[in-house]
Design a protein that fits this description.
Blueprint (H helix, E strand, L loop, with lengths): L27 H17 L5 H9 L5 H16 L2 H14 L5 H15 L2 H14 L5 H16 L6 E5 L5 H10 L8 H7 L4 E8 L2 E14 L6 H5 L13 E9 L10 H15 L5 E4 L6 H6 L3 H8 L1 H5 L7 H11 L6 H16 L1 E2 L2 E2 L2 H8 L3 E6 L6 H7 L3 E6 L4 H9 L7 H4 L2
Parallel strand pairs: 4-5
Antiparallel strand pairs: 1-2, 2-3, 3-4, 5-9, 6-7, 8-9
Helix pairs in contact: 1-2, 1-3, 2-4, 3-5, 4-7, 5-7, 6-7
């Protein structure tokens, strides 16, 4: 889910990004010729060749003809279907093959300044990410755009709005559409997610004020919640707020694939925590109820010797000491509905603990763990049979994890992670 940047940006001042260039001025006659050709092309053909599009990289930032063509290209792109968009992007990338990354950044600054459409820039990157596997040139073009988006989506600019049952239906529908952790199955389910003992917040960019970027869902409870079935049951009564001592983050969903890899980090949770503490001063603890989306795939790759090493004496107690990861994954997935011995449950929890604390390339293996541990949380508790949905069974043998956020410990926990060892509660260490 990249360090936050809190410096003011040009977008905060509602000014278009400045277009600068460190490249030497090209031959004016060449550029003017390219611009004339491109002007004629826009009048009669939907698909410009790369040689024509070079003018968008090479022309002076103040060249009105190039800027007009940038506006026309952006308009054509917005109106095009996928097949034409793909060709437009591919030709644009090929036109910049011999230019620098700064020239590519200048191109996108020009497109944004002339179109005045930040959502289009996000869509451009989303399309690049969709098609870069088969269009290698898009990868080179995507990187400068990602860097620009990272600065344009400065976390200090995002607006947080409380979502409740009285919010516009269109916004509630977007929450249903983009909920990525726990599917919202009905309007009754939706109503429970925004009830009195729940909080839902959406984050917006001021230049995309009608497009929610991120949804954060929170349950307010008397104790730390251990399973999602209880949390999401729409038939359960609303808990009285005066008893709430815990805020449980149970879903964080992003809506824009074009912002993939551009992390807003702990800024989001800090904003929500501050809002909750202001509204409910009796709240004392903040945690998550989180999935382990990569656990089963990871376990299936483990050899029998890997399993023995991780389980130690527990492997023999579970009578599967010679089984490899695939067998263990199948057995743990089936164990939720059976009367397997307690030893198997202990094995599953220990394997999950090893997975969550595992590191690769200096980062936690699990994507969700990477987000929360990177924000300074610690692995607090593992929960057996916590998500009985088909998705939960498939991804993590129905296990879930609580990450604990202690504001005074976030910095030290992050430092420990950077040193190569994530912070893990003692109870999890003993599994």
């Amino acid at each position: 889910m990249v360090q936050s940047k809190l410096e003011p940006t040009q977008l905060q001042r509602n000014e278009p990004p400045a277009i600068t260039s460190t490249q030497p001025a090209p031959d004016e006659s060449r550029v003017n010729g390219l611009l004339r050709q491109l002007s004629r092309w826009f009048e009669r053909s939907p698909l410009p060749g790369p040689q024509h599009l070079q003018a968008l990289y090479l022309a002076s930032p103040k060249d009105e003809a190039a800027n007009r063509l940038a506006r026309e290209w952006a308009t054509r792109y917005e109106q095009a279907e996928d097949d034409q968009r793909r060709l437009l992007l591919n030709n644009l990338a090929q036109a910049g093959n011999d230019t620098s990354s700064e020239s590519a950044a200048q191109l996108f600054r020009r497109l944004y300044a002339q179109s005045d459409n930040l959502e289009l820039m996000v869509q451009l990157r989303a399309d690049m990410l969709r098609w870069h596997t088969n269009e290698a040139s898009l990868s080179t073009l995507e990187q400068p755009l990602a860097a620009l988006l990272s600065s344009w989506f400065d976390v200090g600019m995002l607006e947080m709005r409380h979502i409740n049952w009285d919010s516009p239906a269109s916004l509630l529908e977007k929450l249903i559409q983009y909920e990525a952790v726990h599917e919202i199955r009905s309007w009754e389910d939706m109503r429970r997610r925004v009830a009195g003992d729940r909080r839902c917040y959406a984050f917006f960019h001021p230049r995309m004020s009608n497009v929610p970027l991120i949804f954060v869902e929170v349950a307010l409870a008397e104790n730390m919640i251990a399973d999602v079935q209880t949390l999401l049951d729409p038939a359960l009564p609303v808990d009285p707020l005066h008893k709430a001592r815990w805020a449980i983050f149970y879903s964080i969903s992003t809506t824009q694939s074009g912002l993939k890899g551009i992390s807003f980090g702990n800024f989001l949770l800090k904003r929500v925590i501050e809002e909750l503490k202001s509204e409910l001063p009796k709240l004392k603890s903040f945690a998550t109820l989180s999935p382990m989306p990569g656990f089963t795939k990871w376990l299936e790759k483990q050899s029998a010797s890997d399993i023995k090493k991780m389980l130690g004496q527990l492997a023999g107690q579970a009578a599967s000491d010679d089984a490899a990861g695939v067998s263990w994954a199948q057995r743990l997935q089936a164990a939720v509905d059976s009367q397997e011995p307690e030893a198997l449950k202990r094995c599953g929890l220990r394997l999950a603990a090893r997975y969550l604390s595992g590191m690769k390339g200096g980062q936690p293996i699990d994507a969700v763990a990477r987000f929360h541990l990177g924000n300074g949380a610690r692995i607090e508790r593992l929960n057996w049979a916590a998500d009985l949905s088909s998705k939960g069974r498939r991804q993590s043998a129905s296990m879930m994890v609580n990450y604990l956020y202690e504001p005074e410990q976030l910095d030290s926990n992050r430092a420990q992670l950077e040193a190569g060892t994530p912070k893990v509660a003692r109870a999890v260490q003993k599994l």
